[in-house]
Amino acid sequence: MKKTYLKIFLPSILSILLFILTIFLIIIPRYEQNVMNGKREMIKELTNTAISILSKYENDEKEGLLNREQAQKTAISRIEYLRYGEENKDYFWITDTTPVMIIHPHRKDLNGKDLSNFSDPHGKKLFVEFVKTVKSSDHGYVDYMWQWKDDSSHIVPKLSYVRIFKPWNWVIGTGVYIEDIKKEITALTKRMSGISTGIALLIASLLIYVFVQSIKAEQRKNKAERGLKESREKYMTLVEAATEGLVMLTDGKITFANNLFCKLTGYENDELNERLFTDIIGKNNNTDVINAFSHGLIKDGQYEISLLKKEGSSRDVLLISSTTIFYGKTVNIIIAKDLSAGEDISFTNVDYKRLIHTLNVGFFKAGFQAKGRFIFADHTAIRIFGFDSFEDISQEHPISLVEDEEERMSITNQLFTDGFVRNKKIKIADSKGNTTIASVSLSVVGR
Distance between CA 276 and CA 298 in Å, rounded? Predict the structure, then answer.
């Protein structure tokens, strides 16, 4: 049970952890990197746009439309008022390579000043870094600490892109605040945290539901197993308490035998299991009976046979066979009655066999109750009654073969009154429609 729950919960918990780790260790860092790359590309393109403005006025200077001072003043006035961003407070600035501030929209106190010793709160000489960057590769990125837009009291990290305008030896740049990127990442983290929490709660709810259903299913299973065990115990108690031997055949093999049947044969249960039933049938039995038991499925009916015991002797028994379906397969259920157990039938199952071999008369044994059937019949009796084999006659009621109804009633009444009928001439209607006159003597045993 514990292992089953671990198989259910462990993969689910690992999936949740993997999902959360994927979000916070892969998705969010990659998103942050993509945002940063996007911001880098944006300020680069914006700076290139500002460079195009300077190029325009530098071109006017070349064509003689403006002198350099006029061209630079006009360009400065254009750059000074360039704005972008959500609050329209992001800007451009210009220094020369000294570096001296030419124009800064939010720090007018720096305009015209030498910035060689100007540093941020961390001691970084940022304007000197701008000049070094453009001198080494004409353009590049520099990170530093700077005031938040037009708020000089709020210092935050900033990343700027700078580019040199060689005709005038100017450095122009603009930047993005890392704070803005952090806000975007924080917003994304909150959204993803909410999603993760929702998914975790959903999975937890599903796990609780599965857990509850598993417990209920396990309880139902245990209850069913207990019921099945009780049913089996009751069934086995009834089977073993039976006063007759009971055996089940599947494809002619013994697949179950109760204790009484084992006592009848002298075999242990495991010695009988999977054994062919024909192995324990004596060879002196009626040929029709032997043939019937030589096939996989035995026809329903009653058969009087000799069973071979383990030590080599035989025991006369009456077998009552019936077919049923067991786990989708047709099987024989056989009840074995010991015919040698009672004094009142000892003669019929031993001595009558000797008689039928010496007398040229038909001999049979049958039940005369309402559902009585032939238990035994020799070849002469089978022939007199107009049948070809014992299997054919075994399903018939003996009295039903008497043609005259009054004779049937007379025989039945006399048997129940006196216990016998001697030398009574009757007409027998055989199975082929022929009529035979026979002299019948009947005696009731075991009444």
Answer: 13
